[in-house]
């Protein structure tokens, strides 16, 4: 018997999740059945979409039920295998959730080769967030040489890849991030313009430092950043709407006049192409190319990445709040059984 520590959803949060919304418990795990594998979690990915899974509001995916283990992508080691596809000691990408061990169907796992890249990157630059940036930017944003691409949450795993692919495609990259340390990192990554949204002066700073306007705005955050970017969008600008993390902990929309008419007016008069997407939509079309392009770019140093790896499963709820509030610096990953 394997004792498994896990974090379950105890109640649905209102606003920022609190300790009482989770239940940390332990349970004995059985053995893997035919076609299944017992996994020990090495790394758990924390992603903004998990806030949506805690809510039962209608969305593109089913919520986590109260009492269930919180979901999440994981990099794990095979402890026991009841499948001819995997052997003890293999490292795999799966969807084990917020727990130390999981039993998963072999068919849902992908073997990882530590020789290719550190295995934690399968949760970031070489995983779902990197793919989101790649597919959303190339399919919807379609940056052309000489154009200007802007993105916020620009030091995160989605935003940093958007900016670096824009550069590879010959476009100018404008990164928006929270605080001077993150802005300095954007300069190191080769963004042409790096701005801090916390100065409260983003609208004017964009006007001064991006006089040519914006041709592609990859929308990761919404809120005040979107308000500052909207007036800078050029005619025929493309806006892949990837995420609205500024809203995820809101309990209701902020007070104020209804601006939907003005927004639609802007879309009409500047012929904007605003298109939401969820990355799964593009898996069939782009995933194979993504893996080969991105592995090459990472190897050649054309795409660099930063990880924020934190120790200990029990602190995961705290780390998750840090992620939503911008207190992460790079891809947020939990090293599940590490103590420091
Ligand atoms: N559509 C899809 O299929 C898909 C897939 C993956 C991710 N996403 C979305 O992509 C976005 C980025 O995800 P990620 O994993 O790369 O996250 P991330 O950048 O690692 O973390 C979120 C970042 O959002 C920024 N942020 C939070 N509140 C903000 C606010 N009020 N105003 C401006 N910035 C704020 C913070 O960065 P700063 O400190 O720099 O402000 C924070 O670090 C999220 O919206 C996520 O939901 C969508």
From TrEMBL:
Nucleotidyltransferase in keyword set: no
Q: Which residues form the Enoyl reductase (ER) domain?
A: 15-334
**UniProt-listed InterPro entries:** ADH-like_C, ADH_N_2, ER, GroES-like_sf, MDR_fam, NAD(P)-bd_dom_sf
SUPFAM superfamilies of this UniProt entry? Answer: GroES-like (SSF50129), NAD(P)-binding Rossmann-fold domains (SSF51735)
One Pfam family named in its UniProt record = ADH_N_2
Q: Which UniProt keywords apply?
A: Oxidoreductase
Q: Which domain of life is it from?
A: Bacteria
Gene Ontology molecular functions: oxidoreductase activity, acting on the CH-CH group of donors, NAD or NADP as acceptor
- Quote the protein name from its UniProt record: NADP-dependent oxidoreductase
Q: Which organism is it from?
A: Brevibacterium aurantiacum
